[in-house]
């Protein structure tokens, strides 16, 4: 016997969905409270319609603070569509007994592909060559400036050897790249060289790839000294979070030629991108879409629903956020 709509568990969604659709698959299983569709200010909407909502589905655009949690007395689970958790006050959720689940490893393969693609693009100047042809400069100016040799043999340092970082490393092995890494702890299960700090990692890398999460410890972790250690022939790729790099220092290093180039999918103040980067041919820019493919969104939908169904069935969550996060 099918449950009537008013019998379905309430699922609160605060911000509009963007690329990820909170549509039919969720509406078939939950009573979805779409706060962004209401003309009411958010506190009034929550007070009037979400006091009994036990579940919140959110993206990184929703800041889950103690203040927001105060407005949701019945909340018992938060499921976020991102792997990163810097938008959620996780300790406060734990204090209140609110479970948290994230996207787990759903995006790992796609982000790893994008990271390697950005590195190839910067090295071989693929996007710059495309602009050169489209602007008619091939016929007008002749030969295009040379790029660098491909990834083969390049020393690559990975910051954050979690699920994404490991997938990046596996791809780079096919290019014969010596891989080293920095993370909170040394990983006994891998043979890659471990550096306890990012300065030493950068000093021993031709390419530095940022794959870690944004935390208070990693904010602006990549600053002037690390960029200088990477050096004039060095390339930095960021598929983590923009604020892991001190963006002002990165811009200066690129403009002054203190590093060779950069591939950036994330920025410190999205969607705003530093004006200086827009005219640089040694920089490849992407609008925070490394994780997003049709296939990953389908997998994400299934995972989000599976986490919610597990919660409402008093079963273990599929991708619970652990204490170490």
From TrEMBL:
Residues 116-290 form the D-isomer specific 2-hydroxyacid dehydrogenase NAD-binding domain. Keywords: Oxidoreductase. Transmembrane segments: none annotated. Residues 48-321 form the D-isomer specific 2-hydroxyacid dehydrogenase catalytic domain. The keyword Oxidoreductase applies. It comes from the Eukaryota. This is Glyoxylate/hydroxypyruvate reductase HPR3 isoform X1. The gene is LOC115744329.
């Amino acid at each position: 016997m099918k449950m009537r709509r008013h019998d379905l568990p309430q699922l609160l969604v605060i911000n509009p969905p963007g690329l990820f659709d909170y549509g039919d698959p969720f509406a078939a299983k939950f009573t979805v409270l779409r706060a962004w569709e209401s003309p009411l200010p958010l506190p009034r909407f929550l007070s009037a319609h979400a006091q009994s909502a036990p579940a919140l589905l959110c993206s990184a655009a929703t800041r889950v603070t103690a203040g927001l949690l105060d407005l949701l007395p019945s909340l018992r689970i938060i499921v976020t569509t991102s792997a990163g958790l810097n938008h959620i006050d996780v300790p406060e959720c734990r204090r209140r007994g609110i479970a948290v689940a994230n996207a787990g490893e759903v995006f790992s393969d796609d982000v790893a592909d994008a990271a390697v693609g950005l590195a190839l693009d910067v090295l071989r100047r693929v996007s710059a060559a495309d602009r050169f042809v489209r602007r008619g400069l091939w016929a007008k100016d002749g030969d295009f400036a040379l790029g660098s040799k491909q990834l083969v043999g390049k020393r690559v340092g990975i910051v954050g050897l979690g699920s994404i970082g490991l997938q990046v490393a596996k791809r780079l092995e096919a290019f014969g790249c010596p891989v080293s890494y920095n993370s909170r702890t040394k990983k006994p299960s891998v043979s890659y060289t471990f550096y306890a700090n990012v300065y030493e990692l950068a000093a021993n890398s031709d390419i530095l790839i940022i794959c870690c999460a944004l935390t208070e410890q990693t904010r602006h972790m990549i600053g002037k000294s690390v960029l200088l250690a990477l050096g004039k022939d060095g390339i930095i790729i960021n598929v983590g979070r923009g604020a892991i790099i001190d963006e002002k220092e990165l811009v200066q290093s690129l403009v002054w030629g203190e590093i060779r180039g950069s591939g950036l999918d994330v920025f410190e103040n999205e969607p705003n991108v530093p004006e200086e980067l827009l005219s640089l041919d040694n920089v490849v820019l992407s609008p925070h879409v490394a994780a997003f493919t049709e296939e990953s969104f389908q997998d994400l939908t299934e995972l989000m629903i599976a986490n919610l169904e597990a919660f409402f069935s008093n079963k273990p969550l599929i991708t619970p956020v652990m204490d170490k996060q």
